[in-house]
Protein 1
Amino acid sequence: MDILNNLAAGFGAALIPSNFFFIVLGQLIGISVGILPGINSSMAVATLLPLTFGLTPEASLLLLSGIYMGSMFGGSITSILLRVPGTSTAAVICLDGYEMTCQGRAGCALGITAIGSWVAGTFSLLVLMSVGPLLSEYALSFGPPEYFALVFLGLTMITSLGSDSMVKGLMAGAFGLMLGTVGIDPVTGVNRFTFGQVELLNGVDFIAVLIGMFAVAQSLANLENKPGSVCQMGNMTSLLPSWKEIKESAWSIVRGSVLGTFIGILPGAGATTAAFLSYSMEAQIAKDKTSVGKGNLACVAGPGSADNAASGGALIPLFSLGIPGSETTAVLIGALMIHGIRPGPLLFTEHGSLVWCVIASLYIANCLGFILATAGIKPLTMILKLPVEAMSAFILVMSFVGGYALNNSMAEVWIVFISGIVGYIMKRLDVPVAPVILGLVLGPLAEKSFRQALFMSDGSLAIFIERPITLFFILAGVVSLFLPFILSKFQPKMPDSCQMNLEEESGRK
Amino acid sequence: MPWGDRALAVVMLTVSGVWTYLAFKLPFPSFAKAAKVGPGHFPAAVAILMGVLALILLVKTFLPRPGGTRTDEGDSPQKKDESSENTGKRNLAIGFGLFTAYVLLTPLIGFIPASILFVLGMVRIVGGMPWLKCGITSVFITVFLWAVFVYWLQVPLPTGPMGV
């Protein structure tokens, strides 16, 4: 009953006109950035973070989580119509989705993806609602050793946020951890690596690094390599699938929803993995195997649902344990921390009304996404005609303002600038940037809890294996370290045309 | 030749060395000695990890790659023609130069003039837009962001001699 009461209160808060406005705005921006190749949800959330400085915590989270959910479906639109995956999660949908477009069934593919996204989103939110509070209640009993083990588990997802090279992913994570040690030591008060700069006493502002590495670096990359080379727009005869087609794809949607939610919960295995695994599953169980890759509806419905379900699933470890399940949720941590809210076990108790408002808003965003997508697909694809230079200029100015607004000083602007250059170089060298952010956010927490735990045990490391929960998290961390290799074995190959467009995409999600 | 990876490995090895040295030089207050881990240990451990990873990367660049002769990991597999690649590099250089100038000039001349000039430069030089469209785009973007941040969000932005 508590859950229903909380949810009702959440709906009450989310449906206040000012909050509802931000849900609609977030959803519209999310679908738009999903459509635009070269701009993914994490970049959009990072770019728009400065807009949330002056907003209430509710409004800012409603806006950003609306973008997060909306971008998932937006990416599918261009995948299906143009064979240009707007996000890497939608890359697999172009395999059969574009084939359906060529066969004059674009409306059916889009409609099924919209329905699947809605069902999957709803399912994952139901799981979030029921599992999240229980998990965080359990986590309330955690002490420093458990926290350290939990953060260790979160840090192991660095490997799955990486590129093809695990070494580079780990290097990026280590770089983030190194940056996280700059500033006053939280335990002893000793100044570390500040090089006499007063601005660095509080550490390297991770929001500035985040804006630089995601927004500035990607804008520079877009200037060099214009994304979204236009393919042939397919015909759309009808915007909605027939009843027979809905029935045909119903089980694929259910399978995608369950699989996606489960994958989303796992730290490090995000929406892209979920979509690829779902495609692989649908391809394997298809009755007519010759139709796979040639417009098989189940192969569109499954991944189209799984990526949305994983987005909801990734919020479970974020809200209940403070561990981001994906790149964008790592960026969402920034949005919470701007307002002095640290995600973790205390979130449901200390900021319960906020969390339930966000959960309710995600339900609303999910329904809105369905309506917006089915009603406005064609006008939305017009966004592709925006000149990339104007878009890049806009994002760069926003990044400047974002850095400046953090402390009303140029110091953060320079951090944004330098992070942008570093991020661009990393992108060129195929070094992922998300692990840097993760290391920078979780590193100080890991160090603090590690040292507090050692205070408790008089310096004995045995404290980390004597406690069952701690041992469990550490073992789970080790498994999570190797999870990407296991999951990658099940991923199907993409055709070259999709792969080429995906290469222009910035990151994983 | 994976020169990019090699350079990255060497730079990170150097950074790791400097970081480790500085970490070990940090004081260890006596009241914190019970934990046996001082303010320098965690940074040193992370820096050593970085050094080991950089070394692995460096060694890998000298080993033959399995299954291919990929020349540069940062390059897109898409074969681009030379002219479009040159245009891309030119656009990047101009965009980067303009952004650097923008960051340097804004505190001196103010947000509005600097932003108008920056956006104008981007859409005109990089995009080759007609002048009228450039003017409208640059003024629109600047005024829009100014209005949103200064009037709506009450975030002060740098002003120049003209007060804008």
Protein 2
Amino acid sequence: MDHAINRYGTFRTLAKFALILVSIVVAQGILSLKFRVFSYFDLPLIYSVYYGFTMARPSGSIAIGSVLGLMQDSLSGAAVGMNGFTKTLIGFLAASASSKFDVDQPIIRVLALILFTFLDLALKGMLSFLVSPGATVVAGPALGFWVLSAVFNALFGLILFGYRSRFVNVAA
Amino acid sequence: MTSGSNRTVWLVLCAVLFGHTLMVTLPAGGGSETGIVRTVILAGLTPIEKLFDVTFYGVGSIWNNYFALLDTRRENERLKAELSQLGMEMEQNREAVGEADRLRRLLDLDPLVGAERVAARVIGRDTTTSRQTVTIDKGRRHGLHNNSPVITPDGIVGRIIHAGLFASIVQVVSDPESAVGVIAQSSRLQGIVRGDGTRYLELEHIDDHIELLPGERVITSGTDQIYPKGLLVGIVAANGPDRDLMKTARVDPAADISRLEEVLCLIFAPGTTQLFEELEEDVRTGSRIP
């Protein structure tokens, strides 16, 4: 009986995570189409950091980042594995950082999101260059885009973390 | 975390990162073929995207049909006046259109002759921040394949880079990795139009003392073997900086790529674009008289 309940609980948790991950990637695609400003956001990146910081489970963060990245790659023009690689690494780094730093401080969260956005874009740039050395590197517009993307991700992440903190406080 | 579990996590991390690196470097990851991983995920995610799109569209149409109809009477009067004006202009243009149509038939060089057209709806935009692609709701089951050109009545949009079963990823001309062979319509200057991630395109052409004037139309040249010759790409907005032996110009894309809703995908029988080239070459050399 206990075994069946446990199995049901695990299935429910997995289904919940699957639903969240699919919603994040689909929302990213649809919102970017309907509202141009959303092309600056990277919702899968924000969630990878959010999960890493709040759950502090490196293995779970690796899985979440990997799945989110793969789905993101499949719905984009990027090579499959590109975002999988970066999101896996960022999820792991976020989870590892949560045990070393006080990630409940808003300033730490903002800095981390900015840093992770730059890391994500830089890693993707490097991987693109390794895969196709002849690929066009557009430095001018890209730098402005990186900064805007980092700012938007940090702001949205801050709202998400703030909402969670309020929810946890109310529950407590 | 104990040192044992710590080591396991590191091992898992290395294995997963290695797996992703392998996928990136394998031809199906970044090449022209659509790999199995992408095909499966596309097939699973695009129905959900379609569902969201239908919902958005439904809410939008309720808004447009019921709430946004204020001031309709005045708008109606204005449109009636505009219609009669356009009717007069159309009458004047009809003769010219007929003549152009006859000539096109004679030459048999209409860029869309021999192309099957599949209408598709744009249901999503690129989920990454570094690329310019859109997702459409048609795929291999509808006859589409990689490299099928995608257009709107205003101009070209791009080409399919990953054809899934029921949905496809279209690389928009403004994507940093997009390149289209083009020709300036009046100066006949040939070049390549590249995307740079912004809303403008960049035209690169060899400096041969021919000046491109702002306002000049840029059409596909057919040299890339993807787009048939003669489709409108954009309008020259301004001349750009010189780059070694190349001159550049900024081109405003003809299709409104930031507000794409419906597009047409073209399917050519194998070898059709080469046939166009040969036909035109024959006409130019005089071996085929229209």
